[in-house]
Amino acid sequence: MREKEDIFHNWSPYAKVYDPIKIGSIDGTDVDPHDRAIVRAINAEYRPNRHVKGKPQCTIFVSRLSPKTTKETIKEIFSRYGKIHRFRVVKDIVTGMPKGYAFIEYESESAAEDAYCKAYKMNVDGNELFIDFECERLLKGWKPRRLGGGFGGRKESGQLRFGGRDRPFMKPIITGRMLNEDRREERNGVSQRSRGNRSDRDEYRRRRDRDRR
Hints:
Layout: H1 2-9, H2 20-23, H3 36-43, E1 59-63, H4 71-78, E2 84-91, E3 98-106, H5 109-118, E4 123-124, E5 127-128, E6 130-133, H6 135-138, H7 176-188, H8 195-209
Antiparallel strand pairs: 1-3, 1-6, 2-3, 4-5
């Protein structure tokens, strides 16, 4: 019972640490992995790239860039929010083609915060941009998408990841009826579920599982 109360009161729409099992859960409460990629993320050993330079607090992640978007366009747009210290467009190591995302480091945290707030979902060359802070060095336990982690994803893949900016956790449904039920179990030492209590749990599971389909 106490655990359910803690889940409800300590809930946040965004992950504070990166736990692959919880990230794979629509409300951040799962205790078992539901796809093989999550198991891969759990078992993967990942350390942030020590060659990455700059301050993570001043760095934003920009993705969903159009192939038509040039470095000059990126610099022109994001210079509106403050002085850029450095930025890089990530390219495929084999083809040399842009992979559709970039990292921009500002001189100040306030400029990064401004870009984070104002450039989110901006339309550039026909694409709606996704903006976030750098997770690799800021989010403890981070695992990238290639190792089964990351955030977001497509429903068709069956590997949705929650707790990020594009797919926040949904608030857990923990009703007074459920808490009273657990109090009775503690007193009686038995598990007796009423039809009404089952319906509460069924609704909880439907809400938790609907984005997995």
